[in-house]
Amino acid sequence: MAIMVSTSLLSGCSFKYSFSGASIPPEVKTLFIANFQNDALGPANLGQDFTDRLKEYYQQNSSLDIVDRNGDWSISGSVTNYSVAPIALTAQSAAASNRLTIAINVVFESKKDETKNFTQSFSQFADFPQNQTLSQVETEKINEIFEKLLLDIFNRTAANW
């Protein structure tokens, strides 16, 4: 009996909830993700790789259907920064670590609620020891940064955080 009451109470909620913490209005069923442009001096496939990972993330963490155009929600943008800089200088003025930073500009549009629309830059980084070159750690660090960026973007769009 308690299960039936709980189920009927939950069915009256105005948002879909998932185990990922997503809180997506029930009228939002589809998502269009445009190919992200690479406007930074990074690997040529960076924008496409980010686009693919973003689509996968929403497929795994929401009930939204990814569509080729005209979604209830749409996400577009570009990679605006890809840079490496030394951090944690030592007494000999040599970098003890290096920091890879990636910034993504995101344009989010909702056909169902235009008050949710936004344009925002998201930036994340990953550090690596100075005795390693970027080419040695690049794939691993890009994946690490993408995971952080994906979570930030998902939380901003679907989790209402």
Automatic annotation (TrEMBL):
GO cellular component: outer membrane
GO biological process: Gram-negative-bacterium-type cell outer membrane assembly
InterPro entries: LPS_assembly_LptE
Protein name as annotated: Lipoprotein
Native species: Microscilla marina ATCC 23134
